[in-house]
Specification:
2 copies of one chain form a homodimer. By secondary structure, chain A is of the alpha/beta class. Chain A is about 20% helix and about 30% strand. Chain A has one domain: Dihydrofolate Reductase, subunit A (3-Layer(aba) Sandwich), CATH 3.40.430.10. Strand 9 of chain A pairs antiparallel with strand 11 of chain B.
Amino acid sequence: MTRLLLDISMSLDGFVAGPRPTLEDPLGEGGERLHEWVVKLAAWRERHGLDGGETGPVADLVAESVRRTGAVIMGRRMFSGGEGPWEDDPNADGWWGDDPPFGVPVFVLTHHARETVHKQGGTSFTFVTDGIDSALEQARAAADGRDVAIGGGASVAQQYLAAGLVDDIQIHVAPVLLGAGTRLFAEFHADSVSLELVETLGSEDATHLTYRVAR
Amino acid sequence: MTRLLLDISMSLDGFVAGPRPTLEDPLGEGGERLHEWVVKLAAWRERHGLDGGETGPVADLVAESVRRTGAVIMGRRMFSGGEGPWEDDPNADGWWGDDPPFGVPVFVLTHHARETVHKQGGTSFTFVTDGIDSALEQARAAADGRDVAIGGGASVAQQYLAAGLVDDIQIHVAPVLLGAGTRLFAEFHADSVSLELVETLGSEDATHLTYRVAR
């Protein structure tokens, strides 16, 4: 059964992006620090056409995430480059370049219908205008037995969490307090949600928490 | 040098108490689940006059926290029993009973001056009306070379964090999403704060993160 995975980096105070994002700095002030742990990894560098990098248990965790992911769902803002005034430009071609680091079909939740874009390396961007259930259904079909990953941003993650559709949560907690920005978890009015803590992996650069959502 | 330690349990979505606290349930709805990991421990049970309980690395971590703590600072609400309409009753004698589980001097930040209360087992409650710096100074003196721990609640922790006075942060992340309640970290307007991740300890019940605040 294809599972839905939320895999995202977060500050200790719960932000996935810092305040005041710009087109040049779509992660907001301090937001890049959330991802310092991953850009050091050989697995990440290889996917971005770079040599070298770290190997070890954290690299293995990321490699396993990549291996199991057959399709990705992301929000419009994540496609076009973080939050900001450009995010509603229906003609924006994203900020992922010709060879995006996904290598699988990506489904972009948007209000603007457009044709699927095929990039190099197996990445395609399909634009879904009829909601999160439809995006998940299409992503599951495209994943071909592998899992579906939520690529962000926070609002997409929150919608899938609120709908009770997320099966697994992998959070990379960066050792930083951003103080402001975009929170991963919205407040919700419901009984608390139980998680099973499946794995904890610590390094100097981040703590990697893997949970299964208890039903 | 006496260090200031913030040691607190938090949900994965950043809450230290659930919504709608009452006098009977001062941790709010779901809030008790944040502390399930600790009440299982032999070290906790012993301090509360109970037998049995778990030993091991997590118990050792808590024992080390207890050993290094020579004084505690807490907020008025933490003294009188969580948040709620009773919290401003200047005559409330707290909810900690005759033999509170601290065993060291406790300094309660409040607007209501009153005499120091001495309890059994080495716990005393001193009421500080002239602010966080004064409370810290008094606690440092009382700690007699050991460290000072912030016992909560969130607003006290936030005040010390904002003032740049916290040296060490130990957060116990419970595998639960509360959805609402009292957040540990307030939004603040400052450059991001760097933390050094000193130790990560995982169990089924919680993830224990120890940070040093980088200066």
